[in-house]
Amino acid sequence: MDTNERIERMHARARELRDKRNKQITALLGSASAVLAVALLTCCGYLMGNRHGYSASDLTGSSMLDAGVGGYVLVAVLAFGVGVVVTVVIRFLRMKSEQRGNDTDE
Fold first, then answer.
1. Judgement on whether residues 9 and 59 belong to the same structural domain of the protein
2. pTM for the complete prediction?
3. Rounded to whole angstroms, how far apart are CA atoms 90 and 102?
4. Which domain holds residue 2?
5. Helix (H, G, I), strand (E, B) or coil at 1
6. One domain, residues 43 and 56
7. CA 73 to chain centre
8. How many domains does the chain have?
9. What is the dihedral of CA 24, 27, 36, 71, to 10 degrees?
10. What's the CA gap between 73 and 64, in Å, rounded?
């Protein structure tokens, strides 16, 4: 086994470890997203004042006719904005990481 073959094996193993770590992180973030979604739906149910379950009128657009829904709209807009910012940051960091990986491979 010569030096070039050892280096190729080392790079292959590094890629395997990186892929394994990325899969673990993806699974963790997916689980966290599911937990947060359930928590958000539970909180919305309590904030709407219907603690015995949902009625048909709570799940329609007519619930937005109430005068006190401004806070819900604000929270929804802010959550969307935070989601966009997090997505952009993650994509930026991933692109930067891939560029670093390409630089070290060459």
1. yes
2. 0.44
3. 18
4. 1-64
5. coil
6. yes
7. 21
8. 2
9. 90
10. 9
60 and 22 together in one domain: yes
94 shares a domain with 49:
no
Phi, psi of 50 (to 5 degrees): -105, 90
Residues 24 and 73 in one domain: no
More confident residue, 53 or 5: 5
Q: Work out the angle at residue 46's Cα, subtended by the Cα atoms of residues 84 and 29, and round it to the nearest 5 degrees.
A: 35
CA distance 57 to 49: 13
In angstroms, the CA 64 to CA 14 distance is 52
Instruction: Report the C-alpha gap between 41 and 53 in whole angstroms.
Output: 11
pLDDT tier at 97, thresholds 50, 70, 90: confident
| 32 and 45, same domain (yes or no) | yes
**pLDDT at position 60, please?**
59
| Dist CA 100 CA 98 (whole Å) | 5
Residue 53 has pLDDT above 70, yes or no: no
Residues 59 and 74 in one domain: no
